[in-house]
Amino acid sequence: MKRQHEQREYRSVIADSWNRCIGYGLHHDHEPEPASLDETAILGLEQEYETLLSTTETEVLPYYNNIMSNSRCLILLADSGAQVLKGWGDRRITETRLRPYFCAGSSWHERYAGTNAIGTAVATGSPIQVQRNEHFLKLNRSIIGSAAPIFDTDRTLIGVLSAFSDAYLPQAHTLGMVRLLSQSVENRLIVRQLGSDHFILTLNATADNIDSPWSGLIAFDHTGRIAASNQRADQLLGDALQGRNLSSLFMESRNLILNHSETAAIQLTTTKRVRLSGLLKRPGRIKTPHQKPTTRPTERTRPTGPHLETVSIDDIEHGEPSVRRCADQAGKVLERGVPILICGETGVGKEVLVKALHQGSKRRDQPLVSVNCAAIPPELVESELFGYEPGAFTGARAQGSLGLIRKADKGILFLDEIGEMPLAAQSRLLRVLQEREVMPVGSTEHIPVDILLVSATNRPLSTRIESAEFRADLYYRINGLSVELPPLREREDRRQLIHRIYQQHRDGNQADTLKPEVMAALENHPWPGNIRQLVNIIRVAVAIADGEEIELWHLPKEFLGEYGNREEPAQKPVFDPSSFSEAPQANDNSRTDIMKHTLVVYQQCMGNVSRAARELAVSRNTLYKRLRDLGVR
């Protein structure tokens, strides 16, 4: 269904472009005038677009020199008006009469060149591939064009990167690679313009893919205010990020992010409860937008929360028989090489169970590689999973890529959200599971792999099989043992689990247990986001309490009012001098002023004793005494 919807949208984009061409007065036999710029005019173009040109050359030339020099493919960089600025590659890809249109100064705007990759990308602001007969002008129907827009740090369209090839050559990866190259240019522009005085945070779904060109990129200052982000970061965070603050995007505090090591991945949770891995570079420390850390983070070494690196079944089950049964069964069959399919709602702990299985297996010292199948762009799933040879396709790295499956060799491969995997990749994965061999993209060599497979899904795969979006034969291949983790609201050990998570995240000086009313609110909540939501709520409450015992009003307001059955406690009493047992005497005026000021500061600090004591420059004991005298505590 999703693929059909995308095809309808694509046809609509082409149809809209043809309608614009008709509105411009074009006809199919029209032949635009090619540009004929002299050296002075070309030099002027190069000077006007020096930053864009030099940045693009830095990204494109390595691909051309190492890969494309032997291929019949031409890359063009155009400005925001679809005027060609420069080209790299083979200009012999098509008929002689088309070659003048690939020269600097030529316009591919729809008004002159009809429907085409560059002009239509400018018109729509989106990546597109235009097949030969989709071109409005007959002149262009011997080529296929793929193009992706380039945006600057202010999200203004400043150019288009495109690849043209003979219509009869394979096009499998061209659009995906053009999108990657355009994002690489955007990333380099962000780093070039902001990296000297801004923090740069690189984001991806897992730590294994942080160094991928498809990672999100955020530039922000020391206050956490975001100055720029790339399109992938906006996609991962689900919103336009420019001008936002880190505190509105992540559950983790700004200081935690700013003070994190530059050589290890940081595990982040967005306010929309999406888990991401990040890598921080401080101002002036970035040389390339995808510089690898000194010690590359892996699934086994990246921080994933307290004690999760040595997580065991005892850490995730506290008396719930169904969870214990799932873990026991999965652990036994995994050692026999039987593939496991873990089912359950979002946030029930599928990934944590996989980590526990890995730690409890004989392969605990071998890699655990997690792949979020929903987070990898469809055009790149095969190359990311199976790897590729140097020169396999336009935009491939010069050294090739090992691929995530081969990274999991001798260990465990965890395919999360496997139901979102594209059909083409499903077919290849089926062959890998049958033959236990991987054939990288662009290679004819079969490479043996030794992996144990665990997959996970948050919705029944049977519905996707019925809609022809998931292969039935792959389903039976990955479903050696199917286990289902119960939602948090149905677990018998809910109270013990809440206590355990609180123990993991509480500050050292906080009470060992939660207050009865707080525990009751947490225990009776329906938890649509399950354990992941519970962890986030507790972390928020711990942060707001800031060392104090957690009260009901420390829980997020959206949690308290989510279902209309929670009420915040009454407001603290406002200071009134008459509340003293003895009326203040004349010489007590200064004390009265002090007490008034104390209460104002305490209320401004939202009842946080530690923070108020710091503001007042007094000890906590002194503040407690004043608050008792005021009748507040």
From TrEMBL:
Q: Which SUPFAM superfamilies match?
A: Homeodomain-like, P-loop containing nucleoside triphosphate hydrolases
Q: Which residues form the signal peptide?
A: none
Checking InterPro entries in the record gives: AAA+_ATPase (IPR003593), AAA_lid_NorR (IPR058031), GAF (IPR003018), GAF-like_dom_sf (IPR029016), Homeodomain-like_sf (IPR009057), P-loop_NTPase (IPR027417), PucR_C-HTH_dom (IPR025736), Sigma_54_int (IPR002078)
Q: Which UniProt keywords apply?
A: ATP-binding, DNA-binding, Nucleotide-binding, Transcription, Transcription regulation
Ranges for region Disordered: 284-308, 568-588
Record's keyword annotation contains Coiled coil? no
Q: Where is the composition biased (Polar residues)?
A: 578-588
Q: Specify the Sigma-54 factor interaction domain's residue ranges.
A: 316-543
The protein's name in its UniProt record = Sigma-54-dependent Fis family transcriptional regulator
Q: Which organism is it from?
A: Marinobacter azerbaijanicus
